[in-house]
Amino acid sequence: MTVKPKIVPYSDIYRTAFRTLNEEWITKYFKMEEMDRVSLHHPKEYILDKGGYIAVALWEDEPVGVCALIPSKQEGYDFELAKMGVSPKAQGKGIGKLIGQHIVEKAKSLGAKKLYLESNRVLKPALGLYEKLGFVEIKGVSSPYERSDIQMELILG
Asked: What is the pTM assigned to this prediction?
């Protein structure tokens, strides 16, 4: 019998996992930026208290994936899909897809019409996942992140 990953809403017991799972990929490919430190060290204040949501993927009760919906500062978008990270030991098991689908459904349940995300072209598996979720590239949006070289949107039907 195979163990299925489970998606649960964030609570303080996952605070360290939320930070660690994101720092892992950010520091592997880029450098931590001020916006990262703010959101990863203060998820309640920066994300949840502003009407956002964080999902945690559990594999045998261990947090192995995270993703946030942050109320968007970009005009015309309801939320930004952000801070998605999956532990290297859990990659290739469909956790990213599962948590991504969960986040999109959560956004719909919150009445969102359009989602936004920022990424970098070096993160090819992530971009492939976003495309599978229905995101398409958009142009002409400025970013607070140095590492961001692609922006995408998803129009929710």
From this structure: 0.94
pLDDT tens-digit readout, 121-141: 999 999 999 999 999 999 978
Distance separating alpha carbons of residues 82 and 72, to the nearest angstrom: 10
DSSP letters, 49-88, are: GGT-EEEEEEETTEEEEEEEEEE--STT-SEEEEEEEE-G
Q: How far is CA 73 from CA 34, 77, 79, 89, 116, in A?
A: 17, 8, 8, 33, 10
Instruction: Render pLDDT for 49-58 as a digit per residue (tens, 0 to 9).
Output: 999 999 999 9
Residue 107: Cβ within 10 Å count: 20
| Domains of the chain, earliest start first | 6-155 (3.40.630.30)
